[in-house]
Known about the structure:
membrane; globular; mainly alpha; disordered N terminus
Amino acid sequence: MSYSATPSTLPKEYTVAIKGILSLFIVGTHLCATCAPGEASLWLQLCSALTPLALAFFFFFSGFGLMTQLRLQETCHGGDLTKYWSGWLKKRLWGLVKPFLFFFVLAHLLTIVAQGIDTFTWRALGERLLASWSGLRYGVIGPPYPAWFLGELFFLYIFFFLAFRWGVKRWIALLLLVGQTLALILFASRAEFGGYWLRYPLCFAVGVGFALWEQPIYGFVKRYLALSIPMLLLGMVSYILGIVTPGLQARFFVDTYQASLFLLPILLMTLAKALGLTNLFLAHQQGKMGRSLLLLGDISLEVYLLHMSFVELFHSPVLYIHSVWGYTLATYGATLLGAYLIARYLRPLVRG
Length: 352
């Protein structure tokens, strides 16, 4: 099956900018987790509330991006994807392992700094490395511990390859992807992995499905705005109820909260396109704000994998910042500067 080239509702520049914004929420939610009850600022509380949706978007964009690339390759090569698939899985998986290894080493080095270089012993380092290995039993990957996201993508890329490599009908391949993902969720549930292994992986398949039927979905949303906007509001209410319900995010079952994680990325992106917000950004992407968001998006992976080291460093025996705002600004500033410098000067060590 081939596809004609049609304008996407999610241009690459737009998704890159959104990823940059979402990465700020991830930083904020981990800062919020270190605050005493009632101490977190409104910004940190907002980040904590939006982080589940941000994670859903990251998985959604990953699935959408892979499927969009596959469709473009199919169009360019007339359906012959033998060359495209050659080495595809190895390249994708290495693109996950490589940044993890870099930030794994960096995280341990910064932990040594946070604990005090004068207190360093090889035995303590060995114990930390052993703890990192033991954490895999419960789906804990790291440090950096947000690397669980890379661990899930590792499996999802394999599932995507197995589902779409041999050219079966797209809807069958999507069902295969969903089936494999559900098996992963079942395993993670039985193994008592964290809730983040349960709630988000299927958002990847939603992104793949959206890429397959992007234009019909967009056409429906644009044509029936009177229905789409109330659906968006209903999804937002379901999401809010989900994040305020204790313990709900730590388990997986089909409920309105889970449905909101599936539907909100689709509705928000298609409505943004239908209402002209996407085109407005594209028209101003060369302005100061647009360039800043694109730069932030380009370093979003580095921000995601680096920030926890500074969250811990600035609340460590060596350097403890008591002011919430001082702590927040120091962490954001150090993370963004560090991420930029790594992306600028050490990119070959991080990116595939």
